[in-house]
Amino acid sequence: MATPDTELITQAHVDEVIRAAFPTAANTGVTSWRAAHADLNWANVTIEFCLFDWEDWGMAPRGLDSASLLAASLAVPALAARVRRERRADLESRDGKVMRLFMLAKIAGPHAHPADPRVELARAEARELIRDLQRA
User: Fold this and answer.
1) Are strands 58-61 and 33-36 parallel, antiparallel or unpaired?
2) Total number of domains constituting the chain
3) Residue range 96-120: average pLDDT?
4) What's the pTM?
5) Residue 45 above 90 pLDDT?
6) Is residue 110 over pLDDT 80?
7) Of 26, 47, 70, 92, which alpha carbon lies 20 to 30 A from 134's?
């Protein structure tokens, strides 16, 4: 199992992180687990596309890596749009939406840094995702 932020990713952990930030979130169960880097961000990618920092890799819900990269890109709209376009299949899958909410919860949750330019963007996207997941 993958250990993003050194914590074992389980359904219970996903629910806990999401609900700490977004108590009204529902329908956050995931069903598709795949191999994941589990710490995919721009600091772990080289220009030749070599991935570093593999100590957290393992099985994780579909979309975790794509959601991680998107979360790291939110403050740069053009970059976030590129990630959304390139990783659309994962990000728009049901589990990908849950993983996006999971990563947004880490940005906008109880430990949000007030100077982080991604906080309000994360909260706005989370509101849309919560509505979308409630309809599913």
Assistant:
1) antiparallel
2) 1
3) 96
4) 0.94
5) no
6) yes
7) 70
Closest by CA to 33, choosing from 78, 87, 90, is 90
Tell me which residue range forms the domain holding 119: 4-135
Residue 28 phi, psi dihedral angles, 5° rounding: -105, 15
CA dihedral 106, 96, 39, 87 (to 10 degrees): -120
State the distance between the two ends of the chain, measured CA to CA, in whole angstroms. 27
* Nearest one of 54, 62, 51 to 100, comparing CA atoms: 62
pLDDT at 50: 82
Model pLDDT, residue 77: 95
